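Hi support team,

I submitted a single chain yesterday and got back a structure, but I'm not sure I'm reading the token output correctly. Could someone confirm the output below corresponds to the sequence I sent? I've pasted both exactly as they appear in my results page.

Thanks,
R.
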Amino acid sequence: MGNKLDIDFVVSTGDNFYGNGIKGVNDPAFLESFSNIYTAKSLQKQWYSDTTPFISDYYKDTKHTYDWRGVSPRHIYLKNLLKDFKAALVKSNARWKIVVGHHAIRSIGHHGDTPELVKHLIPILKANNVDIYMNGHDHCLQHISSIDSPLQYLTSGAGSKAWRGDIKESHSDDVKFFYDGQGFMSLQMTEIDAKFAFYNVFGENIHHWKVSKSRSMHSSA
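Hi R., thanks for writing in. Yes, this is the structure output for that exact sequence:
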């Protein structure tokens, strides 16, 4: 599929290291769960990975040990992070604005909405005309459209541990698509069109959507 789609780069939105995580940059898990997995020639492109410091539960977790160097004290770190995030969006003159995070803002999957992101990020995303928020975390594929803005919430976390069968029945925004199985998504963009598609493990297109913009307007779907 990488060859067929002629990809330019890969965005990794999911967890790559389960169990006890990693102990350092030389941890063998990098080879076992990453380097030795994505070996196709078509995937030897630039990769981008993400995480989030917003989720309160990680800071309350007593079962695992985390390295908080550089992010403590947390309230100051988050304040500065949100300030920088907002400033970057305000400054940007990009025709398309896409934000990537690990946790879903909106989801009908196992984890559901993330309250911290709903509170902190949605106002900034909408105020700055962000077009797409992409995430992993929930082990499914889903597309949710904001009912009061052009913002599209896209979840692509179906690389493994799918088929949970845990689905919320309804949502305040418009659920366009949900798939509880394994798969991935692609995004192709031009100056006026953004086309995204979800695929199952057989490479079959199971949902697609297009957002278009005129040359003189910010957004029109």
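A quick pointer for reading it: The radius of gyration is 18 Å. Let us know if anything else looks off.

Best,
Support desk
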